[in-house]
Amino acid sequence: MTVVTDFGIDFSKIGPAVGERFPDVLLPDQNGTTVNLHQARGRRRALVVFHRSAGW
Amino acid sequence: MELQRSLPDFERQHIAIFAMSYDAVEVLHTFATKYGITYTLFSDVGSKVIRALGLLNEQVYEQHAAYGVPKQEHHYGVPYPGVFLLNVQGQVTEKRFQQSYRERETGVSILEQGFGVDSSLHGPEVHAQAEGVKVRAYLDTDTYRFFQRLWLTLDLSIEPNLHVYGQPIPEGFIPLAIDVDPLPGLVVGEPQWPTPRSFRIEGLDEQFYIYEGSIRVTLPVTLTQEGDDQMLKVIVRYQACSHVGCFAPRAITLELPVRAADHVERPRRR
Q1: What's the CA angle centered on B71, arms B65 and B72, to 5 degrees?
Q2: How many beta carbons lie within 10 A of that of residue B263, not counting itself?
């Protein structure tokens, strides 16, 4: 079996860069409540996870 | 979901978790209820924010094809899989992305490798020792999902007045090396070594690099086949020396069990 795990994507060039403020995000959460990422974060550090669908 | 297990550790460290996908609120609500997810799941229907952030996965079809997954229109719109670490000012301090959505990091490795804080959820610790060196080893989780990236941590304690060699190293000397015995589907990444100290041996012109005291080496391992509980066999090779002479080269073997997550979460399935 050939294991393909490297698609040659350079992630340093994709999305917000290291050192930049993460852009503002204002979206509904799983309860339908609109959440402002930085406001909800407050003075905490944060982990922002991007994943494929929860439905498949 | 795996991250939820680590949520108490993230909360203890005052780190908020946010996840984002293109799913509708209802889909996320069902998912959160089913798996007991309590951190924020953002619903980015139409992938508008994902696209604006420049994170739309343009290669999703290609990736699926590589894994034999048929092309389906609804797969388009997913982001590249990965995480951003933000500091208290909200600035990005690190990006940890995977080439394919199949590879995932554990919450433990994000905490420990990314945020540099301890997790309470290690796999079991294994201890072994030989002349001059003690080793403590553990995986960041004792269960795996296939394609999940696990981190193996090795804490070496080198006896006072002894050292082991790092790299680069002149020919004929034995550097500290870590090998993992092959298993079907096991992919072992490059070890992350601490910086060795430069060192000269009286009467020799060559430059040496050494480790002394306590050092930590980590390496990523990925099990790419679904299936059985596994035993990772890790071999630490080194030669311990003092200022006056060296012991014979040694190899310390450690065996770390790792269980397939399916067996733990759905034991009745098999």
Answers
A1: 145
A2: 14
Looking up tokens 């001059």, which residue turns up? B132
Angstrom distance (rounded) from CA B106 to CA B120: 13
- Could you give the domains of chain B? 2-114 (3.40.30.10), 126-269 (2.60.40.1250)
The pLDDT tens digits of the residues spanning B60-104 come to 777 767 767 777 777 778 898 899 999 999 999 999 987 765 667
- The answer to whether A47 faces chain B, any CB pair under 8 Å, is yes
Distance from CA of B56 to the nearest CA of A (A): 9
Interface confidence, given as ipTM, is: 0.90
- pLDDT, position B52: 95
- Residues of chain B with Cβ-Cβ distance to A36 below 8 Å are none
Q: Is A54 in CB contact (< 8 Å) with chain B? A: yes
Q: Which structure tokens are listed for B226?
A: 């679904």
Q: Is B177 exposed, middle or buried (0-12, 13-18, 19+ CB in 10 A)?
A: middle
Is A36 within 8 Å of chain B by CB? no
Q: Which residues of chain A neighbour B84 with C-beta distances below 8 Å?
A: 15-16, 22, 47-48
Size of interface A-B (CB pairs under 8 A): 197
CA atoms of B6 and B119, how far apart (whole Å)? 8
Smallest Cβ distance to A38: which of B82, B90, B94?
B90
| Tens digits of residue pLDDT in B141-153 | 777 777 778 889 9
Residue B182, pLDDT above cutoff 80 = yes
Distance from CA of A45 to the nearest CA of B (A): 5
Amino acid identity of residue B25, one-letter, is V
